[in-house]
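Obj.: predict assembly geometry.
Materials: sequence records (below).
Method: joint structure prediction, all chains together.
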Amino acid sequence: MTQPFLSIRNADKYFSVVKAVDGVSLDIRENEFFALLGASGSGKTTLLRMLAGFESLSGGDILIEGSSIAAMPPNQRPVNLMFQSYALFPHMTVAQNIAYGLEMEKLPKAEIKTRVDAILDVIQLGHLAKRKPEQLSGGQRQRVALARALVKRPKVLLLDEPLGALDKKLRSEMQLELKRLQHEFGITFIMVTHDQEEALVMADRIAIMRDGALLQVGSPKDIYEKPESKFAADFIGVMNFLHVKRTGEGFATPGGTPIATTHVSEGVGEGEAIAAVRPERLFLGDAGDNHVSGTVSDIAYHGLDLLVHVKTDLSDKPVIARMTADVADNHRPEIGQPIALSWFARDTHIFPA
Amino acid sequence: MTTDRRPLLLMTPALLWLTALMVIPCALILVLAFFRRGVYGGIEYTWTLENIALVFDPLYFRIFLKSAGIAGLSACIACVLGYAAAYAIAAMPRRRQPMLLFFAVLPFWSNYLVRTYAWIVLLNREGLIVNIARWLGYQGELPSMLYTEQAVIIGLVYNYLPFVILACYAPLSRMNAEVTEVSRDLGASAWTTFRRVTLPMTVPGIATGFVFVFVLSIGNFVTPALLGGGQFQMIGNLVYAQFITANDWPFGAALSMVLILIMLGLLMGQAVVADRAAGGKGRADD
Amino acid sequence: MTDRNTFRLMLLILGVVFAFLYIPISVLVGLSFNEGGLPTAWTGFSVKWYGALLENSDILKAAGNTLIVAVFSTILSTILGTLLAVGVEIRRRNGKWLETIIFAPMIIPDIVLAIALLSMFSLLNVKMGLHTITVSHVVFNLAFVCAVVRARLKSFDWSIVEASADLGATTFVTLYRVVIPVLMPAIVAGGLLAFTLSVDEFIIAFFTAGAGRSSITLPMQIFAMIRFGVTPEINALATLVISVSVVALALSQRLNKEGLPGQ
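Observations (raw C-alpha cells):
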C-alpha cells in the first residue's frame, strides 16, 4: 500500500491521570471527508486539537505525507481548524478576518486581495465583506469561519462541530454546502461531531470514538448496517434490542422463540446475548425469518413515516417498527390492536450481552 | 512547558512592581514597629516591644476605641442607606438601572478632598445650612456643626455611601425575581419575603460594604483632619502625626501594623460571611 | 402595602439618597459661579473666580505637577495592569496569595501605604519628588486597570487566540493584532480610571513628595487651601477637579460598554 496521507500512530493523551485519547491509530486518505463521531467526553475533540497542535501528544506520532508534525506549533502546521464558536475576530471585518491568515504568510497585498475576493464569491458573502461579525447571522458567521480557514489552502481542514450552533433547517442546508466545498477545494476534511445523522450524511468515512479509543472505522453504510458492537449499533440511528440465549448453533428468546441471524459479532459466547434489528427492517405480516407479535402501545407520527411501538413478550421495552405513511394508510395500526411483525435473518445482529 | 510560562512572563513586571513598592514597604513597617525610637527622632536598631505596648496604653488605646466607634457607626449608617438605595435601584425598570447605578457611584470617583470640602461649605458657621435656618426665621445661636464627631461621621458616610450601594446592588440584581415571587406565592407577606429570602441572599453584599467602610474609615486621615478640626484625633491622624510632627516612626509603624491587622481580620470575616451565604458552594471554583 | 405604594417608597428612597449625594456637590458648583463668592447671597453669575485661578501661580504649578504625575503613572499602570490581567486570566488557576497581592492595593488604607513608602524611600535615601509620587501611584493604579481589564476578559472568547495561532500568527502577533485590539476599550477605560485616581490622590502624594514646594500636586494644594477656610477660589478649583473626573469617568463607562458586544 502507498503511504497514507495523514497518519495517526498510537496517539495517547493524558490530562494528569485521565486518559483522554487512548492509543488511537488511524490513516486518513487525501481528499477524504472524515468524521470523528462520539458523545461528549469520548476524546474526539481532544484528538482534533492534537491534530491542530493545541494539545501535545503524551505518546505516539502524527504524520502528514510521511513527515511528523507532532512537535510543530499550531501556527506552523499545514492544518487549519474551524472552531465550534467560529472564533471570528470581533474587531475585524469579514474581509479582514479572511485576510488575516494570508497576511501571516506574508503574501503580497494584491494576491491577498484576489484570494479573499475569490473565496468571498465561493461562500456568496461578497456583499458583506465590510461587515463586522456581530452584524452577521449565525449561518453567515459559519461561512466566514470556513472561508477564513479554507483560504489558506491547508492540507487538512479540521472542523469542530461545524454545524452545532445552527438551527435544524440551516443545518441540513449547510451539510450539503460543506460537502460541495470540500469537493471543490479538494482538501481533506476531518470533522468532529456528536450528531450521528450529520456524520452519516456528510462523511466518506466515520470513526466512532468511546472513552478515548476508536470503536469502529468505516463508511457510513458499513457503520449503519454492520455495527461491530452494541454501543455502535445503539449510537447510530434507532435500534431494537432483544435479550436472547444461545441454543446449540442458534439463538432464541427466553420464551423459546428462535431468532435466525447471519451476523454474530466477536465475543458472543455461551448463554446470554443481545439481538439487534433496525425499526425499518421490521414489516407487517410473516414473510420474514423472525416473527414477533404483540399489541400496539404507542404511535409516533413523523410525517413521512410512523414509528409504531409494539408491546411484546420478547423484551421489556416496546419493539419499534418504522412504517412509511402509505403502508400505514392501508393497514392503519391503532393503539391496543394486536399486530404481527417479522424481519429477515440478514437484518439481525447478535452482540455479547 | 512553554505555554505555562508565558502568562507568568506577562505578570512579572506588575508583580515585581507590587513587590518592590507595596509588599516590601509594608514588611518594612512591620519590622520598624519593633525598633526603638532614636533620641533625636531617628531609628535606633535595637529590638523592643515598647511601641506595641504603647499602642495599648490607655491614652492611645482610647483613640483606637473612639476611631473604631466612629468607623462602626459610619459603616452602619452607610449600610442602611446604601442597602435601601441599592434595593430601590434594583426595583426600578431594568433598562434604567445601569444609569441610576452610574449616577449613584459617580461621586465616589470624584476628588475625595473636594467631596469633604463640600461639607465644610454646608456646615460652617457661615455655611448654607446656617443661612437656610436664618432665612427660615431662626434667630437664636446655632450650635457649631463643623468640627464635631457628627460632622466626621456625615463626611465618612457621604464619601463611602456609593461604594456600599455598588456592593449591595450586585447580589440584589443577580437575585432572580422568581425567587421572591415563589415566596409570595407560597403565602409569605412582602415583609416576611424580604426578611426570609431577600436579606439572607444579599448579606454578603452588606458585609462587603460594611468591611470596606469600616476599614477605610478607621484609617482615615483627611475627613477627621478637615471636618473634625485640629483637636479631633483618629488613628489616621495619630499615624500622620508620628511621621510628620512627632517624628516617632517606630510608634507610627506600630499603629499602622495594628491597622493592617484589623483590615486583614475584617476581610477574613467578610470572606467567611460570603462563604456561608453561598452555602459552601462558592468555593467550587477554587 | 400595594405594589404601587412600594414603588413610590422606592422612588422616595432614591430621591433622598440622590439628594444627599448631589446637594453638597451642587452647592459647591453653584457657589463657584456666584459673583459675591459667599453663600449668604446670590449676587449674580460670574466666572471671575475661575479667572482668579489662572492668575494663581501656585495652583498652576500644582496643576502642572499633577498632570505630569497622572500621565506617567497612567501610562505605566495601563501597560503593567493590562499585562497582569491577561497573564492572570490565561493562567486561571491562581493561588490565594496572588489574588490577595493584586487586590491589596485597592483596599489597603492609603495612610499605611503612604507611610510605608515614605519609610522605604527615606531608608534607601531616595531623593523624593514627582518621580516617587508617580511610581507610588502606579501601585494602586495598576490594580484598578487590572480589575477593569479582567472584568472584560471574563467574557473574552479565548478561542480567537487559538484561531490566530492556527492561522499562522506567533504569540506576539496574536497579542498585538487580536488580544490588545479586542481589549482596547477596557484598557482605555482602565487608563482613564487610573488617570482620575491619580489626579485626585492626596495622601500618598503628600508623603512621597519630599520636602519643599517644588513637587506639590493639586490635591496637596487644595488641602493646604481648605485648611484656611472656604474661599470662592477653592469652589472654582473644586468644580474644575470634579468636572475632570466626571468627564473621564463617563468616557470610560461609555467605552467599556461598547467594548462588550451583545451586552
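Conclusions so far: The mean pLDDT of chain A is 90.
To do: check interface contacts against the pulldown list.
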